[in-house]
């Protein structure tokens, strides 16, 4: 793969700073609302734990049996 193509994937520091400023702005209603939903469901760790549990084959099969 060409290094020139890979370099096009780089995000300039200025752009990263802009993204971080957007995400970290305590007055950003969109992010505040998103974080409230994440906290409502137990935070990132709990959401990921539940997702891992739900994706286990035995749990998927049990859900499938319930639907039939």
Brief summary of the model shown:
It contains 5 helices and no strands.
Characterization of this structure:
With 68 residues, this protein is mainly alpha-helical. It has one domain (3-67). The protein contains 5 helices and no strands. It has helices at 3-7, 13-24, 29-40, 43-54, 57-67. The N and C termini lie far apart (48 Å).
Could you describe the largest sheet, including whether it forms a barrel?
Answer: none
- The stretches of 5 or more residues where confidence is low (pLDDT under 50) are none
Structural class: mainly alpha
Number of strands: 0
| Percent of residues in β-strands | under 5%
Form type: flat
Q: List the total number of helices.
A: 5
- Total count of domains: 1
Q: Helix fraction?
A: over 70%
What is the N-to-C succession of helices and strands? HHHHH
Q: What is the CA-atom radius of gyration, in angstroms?
A: 20 Å
Mean pLDDT: 95
> How many angstroms separate the termini?
48 Å
